[in-house]
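Ops channel
N.P.: pipeline sanity check, posting one input/output pair.
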């Protein structure tokens, strides 16, 4: 299993000039490695909305890569965004979902259904063409 910090470091190495929309736990790790703060848009206080904000940015700036760093708990709060993203089909948007099974930011409470669902299958069912 890849740890969150290892995944964040790999994304950082390949970021280029992509916009980063980070939320909750993934953003805490991202803040430790990012060197292009002017291209970072941390989403705090709006848990579950990183995917929607990322889609808006990808549509507004189709020539720029947009990377969404989402948590499993946040994504579960806005699963409908997966259908909207798939319907728009932005080729410049990459959505990463980090699965840790807890709401770490609010004290480590388990997320509903932790360990029983598969976000990749849910995304494919919503119309995402493939896992990246």
């Amino acid at each position: 299993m890849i740890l969150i910090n290892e995944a964040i470091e790999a994304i950082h190495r390949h970021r280029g000039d992509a916009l980063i929309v980070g939320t909750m736990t993934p953003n805490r790790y991202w803040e430790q490695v990012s060197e292009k703060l002017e291209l970072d848009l941390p989403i705090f206080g709006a848990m579950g909305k990183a995917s929607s904000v990322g889609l808006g940015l990808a549509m507004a700036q189709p020539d720029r890569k947009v990377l969404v760093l989402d948590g499993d708990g946040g994504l579960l709060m806005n699963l409908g965004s997966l259908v909207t993203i798939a319907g728009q089909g932005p080729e410049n948007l990459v959505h990463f979902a980090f699965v840790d099974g807890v709401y770490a930011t609010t004290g480590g409470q388990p997320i509903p259904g932790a360990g029983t669902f598969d976000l990749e299958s849910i995304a494919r069912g919503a119309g995402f063409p493939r896992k990246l």
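N.P.: looks fine end to end. The chain is about 40% helix and 20% strand.
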